[in-house]
Amino acid sequence: MQAQVLNAYMRRALELAARARGKTFPNPLVGAVVVKNGHVVGEGFHHKAGAPHAEVLALKEASGKARGAALFCTFEPCFHFGRTAPCVDAVISSGIREVYIGSKDPNPLTCGKSIRLLRRRGIRVAVGIMKKEVFRLNEPFFCAMRRQRPLVTLKVAASLDGKIATRSGRSQWITSRAARRHAHNMRKYYDAIMVGIGTVLKDDPGLEAGGGHRLTKIVVDSSLRLPLSARLLKTRQPVVVATATHNKVKEKALLMRGVKVLHTKRNSGGVDLADLLRRLHAMDIRHLLVEGGAALTGAFLDARLADKIVFYWAPLIIGGRQALGALGGRGVDTPQKAVSLKRMTMERIGRDFLIEGELVYS
Ligand code: AOF
Ligand code: ZN
């Protein structure tokens, strides 16, 4: 098959995979297409963790037509017994003759093993078709497998002059309703949301994603100040409090409300974020949205642990030396050391701008 044709089928598999965006955590987004004599005879995608894998669904739809056909899958079929049986066995027994793979599965349980097995069984395998696109669709999963921590995105909403509050501490509202609604909608693409205790004490946010989306709420609270009446405790979503102190009475009260208390290593700023991320990884959290405040987002940058930023930029000038800037922490001491943005995009949301990019540390 020509490269263009291969890409077209892989693009279809990617399209299918993307339909479940935000719904498969902790699993990746995977799509599969079965092609016979130039016709698509089976399609499938992974809907959610615990549900059948993409390849199995596509092969099921193709049924007998899979014999002698080509399979396009965004990920290498799995090798292991997990929540489901290995896809690689299903591929082999279906009589598929050629397998076109977007990317190797970075999960060490599979990582290359299925590719080798398929080849040993005389099936033609090509790997790396639209690999970049597959990677981008699954960045949280690749980050988890390679770095043993969730992918971290910082969300900031600030005025033209980079302020997130006025000199008297008022912050409602700097960005428009449209931008706020947009930010709220984006929460469904994450499996965890994090704020610092300062933000909870000041704004008492609910941190909901809506639509029944499961979003673990995490509060970074070095000295366990979280009020038991906090709004974020009032829903069924899981809540985690990350702390660097011990307080038996408070911990028990939190536990009674279903809150998980995570004790992390302590550093000069309180909770050690690298340690916290390791623990969140152990809880299978893949994609973390850090919503503030300035101290927490600044600490993520100082620790070089933030991967991306979404910045809502309002055309308002607040001014004032005492008005709080968007990012706290220590920051850098020369412009050469500033964190820069790669693959930046900018779009208009109502009257505001949304700037997104990957963070590059110098
Ligand atoms: C595939 N096809 O559609 C997906 C794969 O717990 P399980 O059994 O659902 O397995 C999850 C792992 O399987 C996941 O970590 C990743 O390595 C792979 N995902 N593989 O062949 C699929 N979603
Ligand atoms: Zn599988």
TrEMBL record:
Q: Which residues bind NADP(+)?
A: A157, W173, T199, T245, G293, A294, A295, L296, T297, G298, A299
Q: Which InterPro entries match?
A: APOBEC/CMP_deaminase_Zn-bd, CMP_dCMP_dom, Cytidine_deaminase-like, DHFR-like_dom_sf, Eubact_RibD, RibD_C, RibDG_C, Riboflavin_Biosynth_HTPR
What is the cofactor note? Answer: Binds 1 zinc ion.
Q: Which residues bind Zn(2+)?
A: H53, C78, C87
Per the UniProt entry, the Enzyme Commission number(s) are 3.5.4.26, 1.1.1.193
Hydrolase is among the record's keywords: yes
Q: Known catalysed reaction(s)? A: 2,5-diamino-6-hydroxy-4-(5-phosphoribosylamino)-pyrimidine + H2O + H(+) = 5-amino-6-(5-phospho-D-ribosylamino)uracil + NH4(+); 5-amino-6-(5-phospho-D-ribitylamino)uracil + NADP(+) = 5-amino-6-(5-phospho-D-ribosylamino)uracil + NADPH + H(+)
Residues given in the record as substrate binding sites = S171, R187, D203, L207, R231, E291
Report a single Gene Ontology molecular function.
diaminohydroxyphosphoribosylaminopyrimidine deaminase activity
One GO process term, biological-process aspect: riboflavin biosynthetic process
Q: List UniProt keywords, sorted A-Z.
A: Hydrolase, Metal-binding, Multifunctional enzyme, NADP, Oxidoreductase, Riboflavin biosynthesis, Zinc
The annotated active site, in chain numbering, is E55 (proton donor)
Q: In which pathway does it act?
A: Cofactor biosynthesis; riboflavin biosynthesis; 5-amino-6-(D-ribitylamino)uracil from GTP: step 3/4; Cofactor biosynthesis; riboflavin biosynthesis; 5-amino-6-(D-ribitylamino)uracil from GTP: step 2/4
Matching Gene3D superfamilies: Cytidine Deaminase, domain 2 (3.40.140.10), Dihydrofolate Reductase, subunit A (3.40.430.10)
**Which Pfam families does the annotation name?**
dCMP_cyt_deam_1, RibD_C
Instruction: Report domain CMP/dCMP-type deaminase positions.
Output: 4-125
Q: Which cofactor does it need?
A: Zn(2+)
Family annotation (PANTHER family): 2,5-DIAMINO-6-RIBOSYLAMINO-4(3H)-PYRIMIDINONE 5'-PHOSPHATE REDUCTASE (PTHR38011:SF7), DIHYDROFOLATE REDUCTASE FAMILY PROTEIN (AFU_ORTHOLOGUE AFUA_8G06820) (PTHR38011)
Stated family = In the N-terminal section; belongs to the cytidine and deoxycytidylate deaminase family. In the C-terminal section; belongs to the HTP reductase family.
Q: What does this protein do?
A: Converts 2,5-diamino-6-(ribosylamino)-4(3h)-pyrimidinone 5'-phosphate into 5-amino-6-(ribosylamino)-2,4(1h,3h)-pyrimidinedione 5'-phosphate.
Q: What is this protein called?
A: Riboflavin biosynthesis protein RibD
Supply the source organism's classification.
Bacteria, Pseudomonadati, Candidatus Omnitrophota, Candidatus Velamenicoccus
